[in-house]
Amino acid sequence: MRTTAVVIGAGQSGLAMSWWLAARSIDHVVLERGEIANTWRTERWPSLTLLTPNWQSRLPGFGYEGDDPDGFRTMPETISFIERYARLVSPPLRTHCRVTLVRRTADGYEVVTGQGTWHCKAVVLATGGFNIANLPKVSEAAPPAITQLTPAQYRNPESLEKGGVLVVGAAATGAQLADEIHRSGRPVTLAAGEHVRATRMYRGRDIQWWMDATGLNDERYDQVENLTRARNLPSFQLAGYPDRRDIDLNALTSLGVKLVGRLAGIRDGKAQFSGSLRNVCELADLKLKRLLNRIDEWAAENGLSDAVDPPHRPEPTRIEASPPLGLDFVKAGIRMIVWATGFRPDYSWLDVPVLDRKGNIRHDGGVVTEAPGMYVMGLTFLRRRKSSLIDGAGDDARDLSAHLAAHLGARSAGVGAAAADA
Amino acid sequence: MTKAKVDKPVNNGVNVEALFGAQEALKSAPEAAKFKWRATVQWIKGTHSRSTVESFYGLGAEQKHKSKFAFDADHPEIFAAEDNAATPVEIVLAGLASCLTAGVAAVAQARKVQLRFVSATLEAGMDICGILGVDEDVRNGFDGIKVTYKIDADASPEDIKAIVAQSQKRSAVYDIITNPTNVTVEVA
After folding, report:
1. Of A1, A173, A377, B157, which sits most exposed with the smallest number of CB within 10 A?
2. Is A293 helix (H, G, I), strand (E, B) or coil?
3. Does A226 touch chain B if contact means CB atoms closer than 8 Å?
């Protein structure tokens, strides 16, 4: 089969790309391994809610129309939101069409699937940046009696055994799971390395309202000082709960969660924690303060200082005088470990040499420059701070589809057939 | 709060351009980043010993310090020793202090902050029931280390705190002390 562009994945990114390709009259097909919004559907725990308010999920030609703009979507609501968007876009879609191989050909790419092989001039990898839950090597040293889970396998606290739980990782996922597991009566110990502290509300507005209004979410990848760092930063310690409560470390320790340093090793049935907890908390407190300062400055410059609540600074992260450096799983009654240690993309089907030694795709704002005609979407800070949000898919799809169109145009012009793809 | 000062070049004596250059170069040549650090020790008498460092390996080749450096170590008289030199645990504190302070200078330079004065005092608690074998529940090492910096620099107190925090984040000795390391000791 032949088409101009193949879009792999029918989540928010793939659908937004399809909308833009159609707008630019570029012939394409969207291939989806399962159903629309498959990752949301099958690889996330049911109590997860979006971390961005309803109003913020804006896609090309589509937005929130309900009566709770400041609410947070549940998983079923997120899935149905993306399904509704798919009906609007009505992409040339093949579902249950798993891509098993992408490789270069003389004039583009070959995309091999369970439903046949496509030949195309351009390919868009819209498979997401959060496919595989990271399981650090130290997990192999955990005592055999300890049950281990990743967030991709986790369903709800009730399905866990009774007993203590060690949650490793304090980004959005780790903090949320620590919160809900501890509330279920299973005492949680949370191992926190470097993390990004956030408050759900600031000066009476949602933090994402500020991120949007100040332009921070629109900050481009070629404007930030240290892009590698920006792309590797853990997610905000945020949850989208109806009561808008915080899930920062102070909120968690107030519940009774035991806070320890980064998990540094497991040896002789004992977990070893880094003595760096104080510093990672200091780094996070300072970073949050810088963000709030920036928001205050913006509010003042834009005459909003009196229209919103007065500024305040959250209490510094509370840490006990000597946080424990070790923990005996048996003595501490820990029965389970939840590895909230991040997700990574799955490129096992990609047979084009564009991955770095860490398995990340080399790209310039989503343009895979080493493989002309190849594009990637949905990764952290791909083109903008919001690139991994649903809200970021539209702008990235617009830019990348424009690049893709120019690439096709240049190719056609090169063989003297400028109108071939029009 | 506004920094309306004349753009005077910041100089803390750290060549950050070279460090950033190395950062970039190592991305494409990760093998060059593999270093080996070495020390040799000779027993002198009692608890007195002398360690020397001279060669190390890095950037894919054997390297050498400009000269051989020696570090004596001993124990104080209240340990029934001769107190010829610092105790090894004090040398550990000195290592941490120097590592963090080098980091402060480098981070300040990278953030274009002029340092005028940097000093730190370190204190580490230890219950010697551990090393004496009096109480098996007491560890041999420090029960904690407190580092207190005094810094005078062209930056706000918050920015200075951020420099010190970043220095800890990037410090080798801080990492060595705060995280476990496998140690293999053999008799050849």
Report:
1. B157
2. helix
3. no
Q: CA nearest B157 in A: which residue?
A: A286
Q: Where are the domains of chain B?
A: 28-86, 87-179
% of chain B residues with pLDDT over 70: 96
Q: Which of B1, B126, B140, B178 to mutate to test the interface with A (most CBs of A within 10 A)?
A: B178
According to DSSP, residue A193 is labeled -
Please identify which residue in the block is written with the tokens 């007065």: A310
Tens of pLDDT, residue by residue over B133-151, are 999 889 999 999 999 999 9
pLDDT along chain A (422 residues), means of 10: 97 97 97 93 90 95 92 94 95 96 96 96 96 94 96 93 96 96 98 97 97 97 93 94 96 98 94 96 96 97 94 96 94 96 95 94 97 97 96 97 94 47 36
Ordered by where they begin, the domains of chain A are 5-131+345-414 (3.50.50.60), 134-339 (no CATH)
Q: Name residue A332's beta-bridge partners.
A: none
Query: What are A371's two structure tokens?
Result: 């493989």
The pTM score is 0.90
| CB A404 within 8 Å of CB A124 | yes
Fold of B87-179: GMP Synthetase; Chain A, domain 3 (3.30.300)
pLDDT for residue B19: 80
Q: Write out pLDDT tens, residues A79-102.
A: 999 999 999 999 999 999 999 999
Q: Which residues contact B140 (CB under 8 A, 6 or more apart)?
A: B130, B131
- Between chains, do A276 and B161 touch, taking CB under 8 Å as contact? no
The complex's ipTM works out to 0.84
* Tokens at A320, concatenated: 């006990």
Cβ neighbours of B175 in A, within 8 Å: 276
CA distance B101 to A356: 34
Q: Given an 8 Å threshold on Cβ–Cβ distance, is A286 in contact with B179?
A: no
Q: Which residues of B touch A283 (CB under 8 A)?
A: 162, 165-166, 169
Please give the full DSSP string across B159-183, using - where no structure is assigned.
Answer: HHHHHHHHHHHT-HHHHHHHS----
